[in-house]
Design a protein that fits this description.
Elements: H1 10-15, H2 18-34, E1 38-39, E2 58-66, E3 69-77, E4 83-85, E5 88-89, E6 94-98, E7 108-112, E8 119-123, E9 126-129
Antiparallel strand pairs: 1-6, 2-3, 2-6, 3-4, 4-5, 7-8, 8-9
């Protein structure tokens, strides 16, 4: 079965085989897992990684606790396993982390709207017909 839209229609979902549905669930599980906050008591990032663009330590999205306040910041995890930002150590403040999301990519999503020669799409967030 070929899915023609980014989100399958009810008809497309109803026609999916068990294996196709299972693959969709696994894909969704991977996506959800990649967006999950990881407590530092559970796991730390791998040591020794370098950002290929900046040639510096890899930054992670971190939840910090400073006193009774929480904040979200990008914090670098250095090669010695320390959370660093602006030359300061934040090991005692980082309570959870996650990888940064992928950068924005221009995309064109094409949807057949039922007309013989008309389609509608979204290009960089703008709706366009052709």
């Amino acid at each position: 079965m070929t899915i023609t839209s980014p989100k399958p229609t009810r008809e497309e979902r109803a026609a999916m085989t068990h294996d196709e549905l299972l693959r969709a669930v696994w894909l969704l599980d991977d996506i959800i897992d990649s967006m999950r906050w990881i407590p530092v008591l559970e796991k730390l990032p791998e040591k020794g990684l370098t950002d290929p663009i900046t040639n510096d330590y890899v930054e992670y999205l971190c939840t910090l606790r400073i006193g009774d306040r929480k904040s979200v910041r990008l914090i670098k995890f250095d090669h010695n396993g320390h959370w660093m930002h602006g030359g300061m150590n934040f090991d005692e403040n980082v309570v959870a982390w996650m990888t940064k999301p992928e950068p924005y990519k221009n995309s064109l999503i094409i949807m057949d709207i039922g007309c013989a020669t008309t389609s509608i799409g979204i290009l960089d967030g703008e709706i366009c017909g052709y």
